[in-house]
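Sequence in, structure out.
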Amino acid sequence: MGVIDTEDILKRVASQFQAEGSMEELVPYGSGHINDTFRLTCRLSDGGCKRYILQKMNTSIFKNTAELMENVEKVTSFLRKKIIEAGGNPERETLNLVPAADGRTYLESEGEFWRMYIFIENATSFDEVKKPEDFYNSAVSFGNFQRLLADYPAETLHETIMNFHNTADRFANFKKAVKEDVCGRAKAVQDEIDFVLAREKDTHVICDALAEKRIPLRVTHNDTKLNNIMIDDQTGKGLCVIDLDTVMPGSSLYDYGDSIRFGASTGAEDEPNLELISLDLGLFDIYTKGYLEGCGGSLTKEEIELFPMGAKLMTFECGMRFLADYLQGDVYFKIHREGHNLDRARTQFKLVSDMESKWEEMTEIVRKYSGQALEK
């Protein structure tokens, strides 16, 4: 397919949404790896401009577009109502879907699925933490997201990826990958396999707490990276949580824990030199503080007490998935060198080990902030 053909398809798709004004520019946008994203600029009758985000959704990862978009529509509508009640700006503080011409929240065209959002002006997302304040601001934003959705009936949402953070289920899949050993790689990584097998008991902690209703089922984002927060260009504060494709029922510990996993590590996720990998307790502290501030008393005592386990389990789960993929021939995660997934697994396991050695300090940090953060 040539450039002209692609441009014609994009314009034809964009014209089937209820965007204001006449189409002026349509260009690729952002650094996302899952969906194809474009920025649409429309000229209004008064001479001004209005911009939109047009996305082609990835149906190889998200199999049921209708359910995914139902989640997005319901959650953003709920957030919009909460933001208005609080005197905020719903055009900037949550995503706003633009309906297709037929009124639906998405468009199906030649077997592909598209959606459109209003573009959030004067705000930027960042791919990596430049300074501790960035990490703190992302924590407040994700905590605020949790607070606003605290009374949303999470059980009514669809699971867009089944058993996404069901660590016990991930463990069962890992054991299957070890047993099958389709690439004959297991013998050379027995130390890493043993590391996982020795922590089977941990894999049940959050699953069991949810099943036994010791912690509540909540609306969770499940991809709490810094670049899923829009930062206000003027204030530098977190403005809006974006990328809601993995919003589904779960535990607040998933969102908190995954943020610590990627943001409080001293090294890159695929760093081959494990000497460079450890948990930065300063960043752990600042994120815990910000997340609890954002949550604004919406979490329970047991949820907060499980914060260290949330951080450890999300890191462990990710390492387990990397190692399983390595054993299966690198079929899920994209690799850029031989042994890439093995390097990734080892960094996660090193981080888990470091968390275990710093458990008392982590617990003390959580305890320091928990007093003013308990459910009101």
